[in-house]
Amino acid sequence: MGSVTFTEKRRPLSMARFHQFLEDLPRDILRGKGFVAFGCLPGQTYEVHLVGQRYEAHQVQGKGGGGGEEPAVLLVLIGTSIDAEGLRNRFQRCLCDAEADGGNQRREGGIACEKASGLRELIAADARFHLLPSPQSPGGFVSFSLRGSYGRFGQLDALLVEAANRELASRLSRHSIFALTGKGEGGEPRICVEVGDDDD
C-alpha cells in the first residue's frame, strides 16, 4: 500500500478538470479523502471522499476556500500501486490559473454556456428537480435542488443524487459536469454543476 498527498495553499481547482481527474484515476487507487476549493465557488470548501470508483463531495459549513491559514486543497489518495509523480503532474493541471483560465473561458465560454443552457432545460422539465439561481461565474454553471421525498428531511439522498447525476451526465459529456451537494441561501439542499469543455 502507498499514498500520495496533494497540497495547494493559494490556487483553487477547476471543477471540470478535477472531475476528469477523478474519473480517470487508476483502479489501483482504493480510497481518498480531503478538502478542496473550486474557482467557480469562491469562499466555499468541499470535503471529498473516494472509495473505489465512487466519490462524493459535500460542502463544509464554516470553512473558507483557502483565503486564510488553511490550504485551498488538501487531498490524500491511498492505493496498492501509486505513480506519485504521474498523479501529481495530472493534479497540477486541475489547478486554476488566472491568465490561462481567462483565455480558455474566452475561447470556450460559448460552448460551456450552450451546454449549461441545455442542462437547465433538462432540469426545468424534470419534476424531480427545482432550478435555482446560479452564482456569477465564468463558463456554464447550474444549481438545482431535489423536490419532495428526493430531498426529504433537508438531506440529499446520496444514491438518488448519484443516479440523477449519472442520468444527466449521460445526456452530455461525462467529463463535462461534476455535481456537488451543498446548502442554498435558505438552507435547502442543492446540487451545483459546472459545465466545461470536453477537452478540458
From TrEMBL:
Lineage: Eukaryota, Viridiplantae, Chlorophyta, Chloropicophyceae, Chloropicales
MF (Gene Ontology): nucleotide binding
InterPro entries for this protein: CobW-likC_sf, CobW-like_C
One Pfam short name: CobW_C
Domain of life (superkingdom): Eukaryota
Organism: Chloropicon laureae
Protein's UniProt name: CobW C-terminal domain-containing protein
Swiss-Prot/TrEMBL keywords: Chaperone, Nucleotide-binding
Domain CobW C-terminal: 1-95
